[in-house]
From TrEMBL:
GO terms for cellular component: cytoplasm. It comes from Micromonospora nigra. One of its GO terms (molecular function) is protein-N-terminal-alanine acetyltransferase activity. It comes from the Bacteria. The keyword Transferase applies. This is Protein N-acetyltransferase, RimJ/RimL family. Residues 11-178, 200-366 form the N-acetyltransferase domain. InterPro entries: Acyl_CoA_acyltransferase, GNAT_dom, Ribosomal_N-acetyltransferase. Keywords: Transferase. Pfam families: Acetyltransf_3 (PF13302). PANTHER family: ACETYLTRANSFERASE (PTHR43441:SF10), RIBOSOMAL-PROTEIN-SERINE ACETYLTRANSFERASE (PTHR43441).
Length: 370
């Protein structure tokens, strides 16, 4: 049993054929595909591809889902695979899944195929589609956003891993009556990939930044200003770096590394948390390596972050929490235009059941200075 051919923007979704065997095998044996889809046989052979084409793909249609080859409309060459699985008829719901062949990546194939399949599913009675991505797979998360899916949360430990253990899956969903087009982002990408004033540069935190972040956030004077004041473990820092882009795409937090604009060397880190979307309010934080202190680096970083938040992000208000005795941080915020707003007594967790006061600074977009 198979389904109808579905036309998309530069792609065609059609049933698999036996002459796709070699391409399916090559695509599914690719290391990137193998890392993304733990359920694939490993190694993946042409026998596996033939079993998929002759048995598993037709069975998907027979059980209420679908499995399509994504091909080039001009050449009929296989570019990707896409389908609907885990149908829940009572909810009129199904789950989108896909892979892209290595020779077709970075061409928008996954986005075009997902849009086409979603349109077909909604036209034939589906009310809700889900797309699950590994929390550490920002490429798939970008496809979800571009195809009009919205971030809904995380299914903890929902995905088995080939080597053992389980991983979190990020949930993206689209409804039949959602507006067409890409999902608007709460936290857009940085213009040109970075913010700079010629002296310091801010760029998105990346997995390779784990070593410098561990060095920074295990400094006693840095973690003493955190709540609770406990140094993070290396695994925590590594995970934070791996998940940084995903948190950005989900509209939760933009984590950035502060660099010397001239040398590219690390100076510290900063971040913008989209703390209250309904109120267009965010929270900023920052920390510097010892060699970067006393040079105005923190103020420059906060000003760059402030201007991005009030500009492309579109926030109306920023806040920053500090310990009452952290006068250096108070001066940084005041130089960036923030004003003291009040003391929240015992607002933060301390050690051994103690509570820590939080001195709050705030800044409105209309009060921003140069």
């Amino acid at each position: 049993m198979t389904g109808p051919t579905v036309e998309g923007d530069g792609v065609r979704l059609r049933p698999y054929r036996l002459d796709d065997v070699a391409d399916v095998a090559a695509a599914c044996a690719d290391p990137v595909t193998q890392r993304s889809l733990d359920g694939l046989p490993a190694p993946y052979t042409e026998a596996d591809a033939q079993q998929w084409i002759t048995q598993a793909a037709p069975a998907a249609f027979a059980t209420g889902g679908c499995a399509y080859a994504v091909v080039d409309p001009a050449t009929d060459r296989l570019l990707a695979g896409i389908g609907l699985s885990n149908p829940v008829p009572y909810r009129s719901q199904a789950e989108v899944g896909y892979w892209v062949a290595p020779w077709a990546r970075r061409r928008g194939v996954a986005t075009a195929a997902t849009r086409a399949l979603a349109a077909h599913a909604f036209a034939t009675g589906t009310a809700r589609l889900e797309l699950l991505t590994a929390a550490e797979n920002p490429a798939s998360q970008r496809v979800a956003l571009a195809a009009g899916f919205r971030h809904e949360g995380v299914r903890r430990q929902a995905g088995p891993v080939r080597q053992g253990g389980r991983r979190d899956l990020t949930v993206w969903a689209r409804l039949a009556d959602d507006l067409p087009g890409p999902t608007p982002r709460l936290l857009p990408d940085l213009p040109g990939g970075a913010l700079t004033d010629g002296v310091v540069t801010l760029r998105r935190l990346a997995p390779d930044d784990a070593e410098v972040m561990f060095r920074l956030h295990t400094l006693p004077e840095v973690y003493a200003n955190q709540a609770p004041p406990v140094p993070p473990g290396r695994e925590t820092i590594e995970r934070r770096c791996r998940l940084s882009e995903g948190g950005w795409l989900a509209g939760q937090v933009a984590r950035l590394l502060i660099l010397d604009a001239a040398t590219g060397g690390p100076l510290g880190s900063c971040g913008l948390t989209y703390s209250t979307p309904a109120a267009a309010e965010g929270t900023v934080g920052y920390a510097l390596l010892p060699e970067a202190r006393g040079r105005g680096v923190a103020t420059r970083a906060v000003v760059l972050l402030r201007d991005w938040a009030f500009g492309p992000v579109g926030l109306s208000r920023l806040t920053a929490g500090t310990l009452p005795d952290n006068t250096a941080s108070h001066r940084v915020l005041e130089r960036a235009g923030f004003r003291r707003e009040g003391l929240l007594r015992g607002a933060l967790p301390g050690l051994a059941g103690d509570r820590i006061d939080d001195l709050v600074f705030g800044l409105l977009a209309r009060h921003r200075t140069g």
